[in-house]
Amino acid sequence: MESITRQSVLDLLAGDWAEYVPRFQALSPDAQAAFLQQQGYQRLADLLAHIVAWWGVAMGSIPRFKSDPAARLAEIDVDSFNARAVEQVQGVSDAEEIRAFEAARHKFIEVVERLAEADFKDDRILTQLKWDMVNHLEEHRIH
After folding, report:
1. Phi and psi torsions of 101, nearest 5°
2. CA separation for the pair 143, 27 (Å, rounded)
3. How many angstroms separate the CA atoms of 13 and 20, rounded?
4. Which of 54, 91, 106, 129 has the fewest CB atoms within 10 Å of its CB?
């Protein structure tokens, strides 16, 4: 596994993830629509809700890993999970979901800052962070 450290995760949360919405908003309306279509979402709020939902899983899993040595990564039906995340924000404006995304990002920063150094030796925590911070960013990267 590539090196996941407290600093690398904090750098992603304060850098690439903090710039995610502004980077999207800097695209032309046509480029925004094309990006969302390529990602499989109709609105920015839908995409952000998807990201926030997965961050919620991570922020719930990490404390469980810390307290239960037998805890395992959650097995989730990805398609239905993603569909539920989008359903939950029907009628929610992009602006409201941007605020929810930012609140979740700041909460994730707090979670990472509170982790002990020993937590960065737990493969379950490292895997969770890699999926939600690194892989998910690559999956939804705005070019």
Report:
1. -60, -45
2. 10
3. 10
4. 91
